[in-house]
Amino acid sequence: MSLKDPNWFYEKMPDDGTAFGLRIEATLLDEQTPYQHLQVFQTQGFGKFMVLDGCTMVTERDNFLYHEMMSHPALFSHPHPKNVVIIGGGDCGTLREVLKHDCVENAWQIEIDEAVTRAAEKFFPELCEANNDPRAHLQFEDGIAWINNAAPGSIDLIIVDSTDPVGPAEGLFQEPFYRACHKALGEHGLLIQQSESPLLHAQRVTWAMHDITRAAGFVDTKTLFFPQPIYPSGWWSATIAAKQTINFKRREAAEKKNFETVYYNAEIHTAAFAQPEFFKKRQAR
Ligand code: SAM
User: Fold this and answer.
1) pTM strictly above 0.70
2) Rounded to the nearest whole angstrom, what is the distance from the C-alpha of residue 284 to the centroid of ligand 1?
3) Handedness of CA 232, 121, 137, 67 (dihedral sign)
4) Burial class of 252 by CB neighbour count within 10 A (0 to 12, 13 to 18, 19+)
5) How far apart are CA 55 and CA 94, in angstroms?
């Protein structure tokens, strides 16, 4: 079985000499949008599978890990999250998780590429089941511009569920964007952003995110860790930057949550923030 086998899709990480593959049974969509190459496959073992510019995005089988861990730990770390903004997130899975929280009054999803959401509606309808919630506001524009125009102090939580830091997502990992987020967030405001693989990208992305968000005015930053099989190395992270100290503010609410999850619970929340030794050493500098 070679990387050229037409019955397999591989995301290759040439810098690290690794690749991740899924056996595919059919190509369901193959479209060049104004922003990226959008593909959807039917796979043998992971259900439907979305790929953007050759990078794995979402599968039916394992997306719950990412969408739950990008949403619930941050939401339960805020005293009263009412207004939430998702930058990117076009597959709508993060929006669905956010709207499981009754305390959320508004959830904006700012996705630059409408084609991604239309594909999700067709091939991942289960991820889109909250799209018609009256609290949901789907807008198709650049998240950087949207945050720049947000009223100061108007947002409680910003979730950056973007592609990797290249192309339209590149600016989402830079100080001007973090400064704009800091301004848009209220006094207890939190920003959480997917911060790539702790094994492969800590130096280049994860630790840089701590430094850059702190330079932008955030006073506390923490990385949380979770498995994500289809992403490079299978070990993923999200980093929270806060205007006040990050802690499990609504632990009891998490323990008594009134909605279903597949992975997240209060114990997983606590465990996800446990810092690997090499992270501790880096932060002790
Ligand atoms: N979970 C995936 C990951 O970690 O790579 C991300 C899923 S979601 C499909 C990523 C989305 O971010 C894409 O649909 C892409 O169009 C969107 N995106 C990238 N840059 C953006 C920007 N500046 N503003 C809004 N959306 C953006």
Assistant:
1) yes
2) 32
3) negative
4) exposed
5) 18
